[in-house]
Amino acid sequence: MAVKSDIEIAQEAKMLHIREVADKLGITEDDLEYYGKYKAKLSEEYLRKVEGNKKGKLILVTAINPTPAGEGKTTTSVGLGDALNRLGYKTVIALREPSLGPCFGIKGGAAGGGYAQVVPMEDLNLHFTGDFHAITSANNLLAALIDNHIQQGNELGIDTRQIIWKRAEDMNDRALRNIVVGLGAKADGVPREDHFVITVASEIMAILCLASDMDDLKARLSRIIVAYTRDGEPVTAKDLNAVGSMAALLKDAIKPNLVQTLEHTPVIVHGGPFANIAHGCNSVRATKTALGISDYTVTEAGFGADLGAEKFLDIKCRIAGLKPDAVVLVATIRALKYNGGVAKKDLGEENLEALKKGIVNLEKHIENIQKYGVPVVVTLNAFLTDTDAEMAYVKEFCEERGCKFALSEVWAKGGEGGEALAKEVISTIENKPSNYAPIYSDDLSLTEKITKVATEIYGADGVNFLPAAAKQLAKIEEMGFGKLPVCMAKTQYSLSDDPNMLGRPRDYNITVREAYVSAGAGFVVALTGAIVTMPGLPKRPAAFDIDVNAEGNIVGLF
Predict the structure, then answer these.
(1) Catalytic residue among 274, 411, 465, 523, which?
(2) Catalytic residue list contains 196
């Protein structure tokens, strides 16, 4: 029998009306703002009612560095949430919204997979409730106001060579990375070089995900630095009188969205910053709301633990006052063998030597999470090609390092296939206290914080700060932002800043080529290696396979 695709499984699902899902959590119809039958936003009145009402335990799901073999982090998050509910624990899953760029590019959607999915899958992966469009509009309104201010006389004295605010588009479009605007007649604006970032890399995305309420959102928006004057003084969104109109565009987007899994577990989906170029976590509002109404909240952070988990633990938890009770670290035998040098086409064959060589990637991620004082449970996302000998080796390897271990079969079996993992997570939380603490203190300099992440988390020997980056970091500290955490922009494919260095790289330095402050979000971004904030499409993008059939159903979305 042919294996069904993710979208086929999702389209066959019997979804509950979203009010029935909400009712499981004691959320009434008056607390919901409907977006059709199966999606709703939580009202501001309800969010205020449960604010600060933390009662649940927080579980972070992360993974080893991603490979073409796949890891299944979101699938594991969904299956774990379903499993906890099956075991009788009131559980809410808190996830990010997918970006259109990867959906039409190479990665595909981000609703989970197999029988551990969030539905409606097509809505979630495409326009959903319009949050990303609102963020894009607010971002580009601010960009338009900058150019209009210059056109109308430039009262603030903005240096057109020092405009740092970029336009945004939620699509992979490399042609927009570096552009020229203002060409044409005098009325068409002042010619200057400009740039685009993908929406999920916009500071407004980060602000939305870190803001506690509308007042905090507006305060953060007001602090956005968009440019510098000819005298080198910062110009903010507040200086341009942009805050009120931006907030109006974000009025609904700041409210978290409620959907469900295939097994009708409640899922709060909100925000979607990438972890390789932003902080990679869903919104603080979504996580805190879930914690206030559940026994267990399962959330995830993007890409590998060196990116998403590090930023969750060093940025989101620090800013929001969160404390994870356990971390689930996802790996696959296929991915570990890929790290051990096996070609993708040969990953289905047993190869213990390659597994032993590649498992050092998992080893480093275990060590990293343990440095934060949080207990770790390692799970293998199971594939049919995994052998008993390979699984036994990984289990023994993890247990020797003080980790609980469980096999996850959620792709094929849904929540039932996650019960072993759920039991290990519960046992870990009940028997191993979490002594969470960030990896660095606020009082270190920015260069010391960057170096701490590079050496402690990535395993680098040190950091090469290019002259431009060193100058920018000094300026940022001079402006009074030295106590902010750092957000590292780095390739997701390696612990290093070189995507080709697999496994556990040693004897190398990280190169920081650029740095800037996201004053509204509350962190300093350091760009390493060749990372870019506007991805491009592959030679054969996923968009080639997406269509709408005669019945009006979307096909080819994965």
Answers:
(1) 411
(2) no
